[in-house]
Amino acid sequence: CIYHGNGGIEAKARFLDVAKKFGLEKVTDQVSPYYMTLRYEEVAKDILVTDFLTDVQCDYLIQKSEGHGNWGQMDGDKFPAQEIRLKSLGLWHEYERLWAEKLGKISETKWTPMAHLGLRDAFTMKYSMDTQKELGFHTDASLVTGSVKLNEDFEGAELIFPHQNFSNINVPRGKCILFPSQVTHGHKVPELKSGTKYSLTMWTSRYSGDVN
Fold first, then answer.
1. What is the pLDDT of residues 57-81, one digit of tens each?
2. Nearest Cα to 4, choosing from 30, 94, 91, 16?
3. CA–CA gap between residue 145 and residue 180 (Å, rounded)
4. Cα–Cα distance between 193 and 175 in angstroms, integer?
5. 162-184: buried (b, 16+ CB within 10 Å) or exposed (e) per residue?
6. In whole angstroms, what is the distance from residue 28 CA to residue 25 CA?
7. Alpha-carbon separation of residue 75 from 14, 81, 92, 114 (angstroms)
8. Which of 122, 146, 178, 183 has the smallest CB count inside 10 Å?
9. How far apart are CA 5 and CA 71, in angstroms?
10. Are 37 and 12 in contact (CB under 8 A)?
11. Taking the CB of residue 111, how many other CB atoms lie within 10 A of it?
């Protein structure tokens, strides 16, 4: 049973009354659900970084993915990886909205006159010492790709863009990297040295109806 205090004043008062009866009187600061600012920094040629997820949300995505399990690769993928679709996690519509309201608008501003046509695919990825440790040099089937580091307690396996001489090794977790990914921004992940790496990858549609 879950009881929450969303609603009007009466609902919130009732919520606090119930919480007190269970000895839960501590009030904590609410965490903003997402960083909806359209500000970004260009850290290399056509590679943008913007605030996106909080630490709590990064942890949630990791826990949600591990709880779901069934990490695996897509059939016919030339560069297979250990992945779980956000559709399988029940988060597709939430992140589709985030692209429309934030990341898509940033992309349209930076790369005018492109138009954001929608989210094509989105998935969490896992690199571990006993499964997949690296990913070869490749481009994406995506107009603009978003990549988010979900944790930092690992060594190696950074995201590298050889043509732009850039690595995400110093990009904090939760920040989203945006880049035009079909031709100019090939990227790779070198071998993991220790720990387990989790990340979120989001692809956008290249034409109307292009949804994986």
1. 999 999 999 999 899 987 778 888 9
2. 16
3. 6
4. 23
5. eebebebeebebbbbbbbbbeee
6. 10
7. 51, 11, 20, 30
8. 183
9. 35
10. no
11. 16
Q: Which of 102, 104, 125 is nearest to 36 (CA)?
A: 102
Residues 93 and 75: their CA atoms lie apart, in Å, by 23
Among 129, 145, 131, 136, CA closest to 181: 145
Instruction: Please tell me whether residue 131 adopts helix, strand or coil conformation.
Output: coil
Closest CA to 35 of 200, 202, 180, 176: 176
* Structure-token pair, residue 195: 């720990």
Contact 61, 52 (CB under 8 A): no
Nearest-angstrom CA–CA distance, 69 and 126: 11
% of the chain beyond a pLDDT of 90 = 77
Beta bridge partners of 199: 125, 149
Which residue type sits at 206? R
**Beta carbons within 10 angstroms of residue 40's beta carbon:** 20
The candidate with the shortest Cα–Cα distance to 124, out of 60, 29, 205, is: 60
**What pTM does this model have?**
0.83
